[in-house]
Specification:
single chain, mainly alpha, Tektins, cytoplasm
Length: about 325
């Protein structure tokens, strides 16, 4: 019994340790997911900024494409043809390095101002920047897909490990409950036998007391006869056959009563021992019933269904 109880404790401790190990691994995975989420959002932001810049450039090119000799707002810009778009620009006013700022002049011509401290790109560097953003986005998507697969595998692995620990603990509980039930049955059987023995012993005590009471009256009669015959006078006070018979009768009755008293004492001592044994059995039985209630009703009652769903939906 103690071995199975220790086995249940060890199974529970192993299950707790397994759950904590899974929690630690899941926390590490959660940190990786958070880091990957930040990287994916950074890549998304770069793509959004690149798309926004290209939409702005496309709008500017569309405006430039629609200009003709009769368009309003056309004007001279001295030295504009000498501007080298591979050099660092130093314009009058900008707010961002990642996009152009559009201002309106007096004649409603849209004029871009180049970013301060930013080198204007060549067609090759422009294409390289777009490809780099796409490649980073693709790499982050691959990492995210791999991380989702790792998360799926880890969750399923943790679920299987916890399920195995769960099943091992439940099996230990089942064996413990079965042995407790067996011990409870044996205790109830022994208790029933002890109670029957107590009942028989109490009947025996009553019979002994009745036998003592039954023999006390004949002894009183014999004593009274001897006492009465002791009042005879002179030569009449002799040890005749009647006297000898009375003395023998008294001796036999006293010997019988002594034996009955000794048996009564032994029966009462045995009765007290049986009562003590009954008390111990009842106490042990209460402990078994309490243990059975805790293991089967409380503990196993909370462990009837596995509290983890390994299904992952994206």
């Amino acid at each position: 019994m103690a071995g199975l109880g220790l086995q249940v404790e060890q199974s529970l401790l192993a299950e707790v340790e397994q759950i904590r190990s899974c929690q630690c691994r899941l926390k590490q995975l959660h940190q990786r997911v958070c880091d990957q989420l930040r990287c994916s959002r950074a890549a998304q932001q770069e793509l959004e900024l690149d798309v926004k810049s290209k939409e702005s450039a496309l709008g500017i090119d569309n405006v430039a494409h629609t200009l003709n000799n009769f368009s309003r707002g056309i004007n001279y810009y001295g030295g504009i043809e000498k501007y080298d778009n591979t050099c660092v620009s130093t314009p009058r006013e900008v707010k961002s390095c990642s996009s152009y700022r559009i201002v309106r002049h007096r004649r409603d011509l849209l004029t871009p101002l180049f970013p301060v401290g930013c080198r204007l790109t060549t067609p090759d560097s422009w294409a390289e920047n777009s490809n780099r953003n796409c490649q980073r986005s693709q790499n982050e998507r691959i990492k995210s897909a791999q991380l989702r697969a790792d998360a799926d595998n880890l969750i399923n692995t943790c679920s299987n490990e916890i399920w195995n620990s769960w099943g091992s603990t439940n099996n230990a509980f089942s064996r413990r409950v079965a042995e407790t039930l067996e011990a409870k049955g044996k205790l109830q059987m022994h208790l029933h036998k002890v109670q029957k023995e107590i009942f028989d012993e109490e009947k025996n005590i009553e019979l002994l007391r009745k036998a003592i009471l039954d023999k006390s009256k004949p002894l009183k009669v014999a004593h009274t006869r001897l006492e009465g015959r002791s009042h005879r006078r002179a030569v009449e006070l002799c040890k005749d056959d009647a006297y000898n018979a009375l003395v023998q009768e008294v001796q036999e009755l006293e010997h019988s009563l002594n034996q009955l008293h000794r048996k009564l004492e032994e029966a009462e001592a045995q009765h007290q021992q049986l009562l003590y044994t009954q008390s111990n059995l009842e106490s042990d039985l209460r402990l078994k019933v309490n243990s059975l209630f805790i293991d089967r009703e409380k503990c196993m009652g909370m462990r009837r269904s596995f509290p983890i769903n390994a299904t992952i939906k994206y």
